[in-house]
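// run 5 | inverse folding | seed 20
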């Protein structure tokens, strides 16, 4: 399929043509957006497809120092982590869907860790959910909380992350946008772990986990 320069808008004049392109690319509509107006639904799917082609670094986010009541479900994989300021103190951000167990845990403790992962297994475990984490290292799916902590510990001890940032959530500088919260955190310290030889930090692009390629300049 050859893509030509064209501007898609929510009120596009040729919705039928736009929907045909979306159907060809995505095969079927997303159930989440079936209630949206036709033009807006098409725009949403076009943006989703476009952004899937852009490489994004992957981070595991986990609330720190949380009470037992918030442990179950704490931890998720994000592709939206970034620095937003360096001076006078480093500030970072990521997006999280609300409501979610991890958001509730961070809201409770005000502290979180962000680890740059290089392991596909770790990424998949935190992308799929806490139940899948319990299958790693023979946890057997019985103790989700212990499994979550175990998998997160692997990030630190087994060379599957380059570094972890320990952060404090800045609630007043965070904001709700649609069904997501833009979370802003102040970096308190950075712990370097190193990664296994031959690996790099993991990115996600075009529906697949990847490592960054060779420099071009």
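// decoded
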């Amino acid at each position: 399929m050859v893509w030509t320069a064209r501007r898609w808008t929510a009120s596009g004049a040729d919705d039928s043509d736009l929907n045909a392109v979306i159907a060809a690319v995505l095969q079927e509509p997303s159930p989440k957006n079936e209630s949206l107006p036709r033009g807006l639904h098409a725009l949403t799917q076009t943006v989703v497809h476009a952004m899937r082609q852009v490489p994004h670094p992957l981070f595991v986010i986990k609330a720190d120092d949380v009470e037992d009541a918030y442990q179950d479900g704490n931890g998720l994989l994000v592709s939206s982590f970034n620095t937003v300021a360096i001076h006078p103190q480093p500030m970072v951000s990521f997006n999280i869907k609300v409501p979610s167990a991890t958001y509730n845990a961070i809201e409770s403790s005000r502290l979180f860790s962000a680890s740059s992962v290089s392991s596909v297994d770790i990424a998949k475990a935190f992308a799929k959910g806490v139940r899948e984490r319990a299958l790693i290292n023979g946890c057997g799916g019985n103790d989700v909380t212990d499994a979550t902590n175990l998998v997160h510990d692997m990030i630190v001890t087994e060379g599957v992350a380059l570094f972890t940032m320990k952060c404090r959530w800045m609630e007043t500088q965070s904001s709700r946008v649609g069904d997501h919260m833009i979370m802003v955190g102040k970096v308190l310290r950075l712990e370097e772990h190193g990664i296994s030889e031959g690996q790099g930090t993991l990115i996600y692009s075009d529906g697949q986990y990847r490592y960054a390629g060779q420099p071009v300049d």
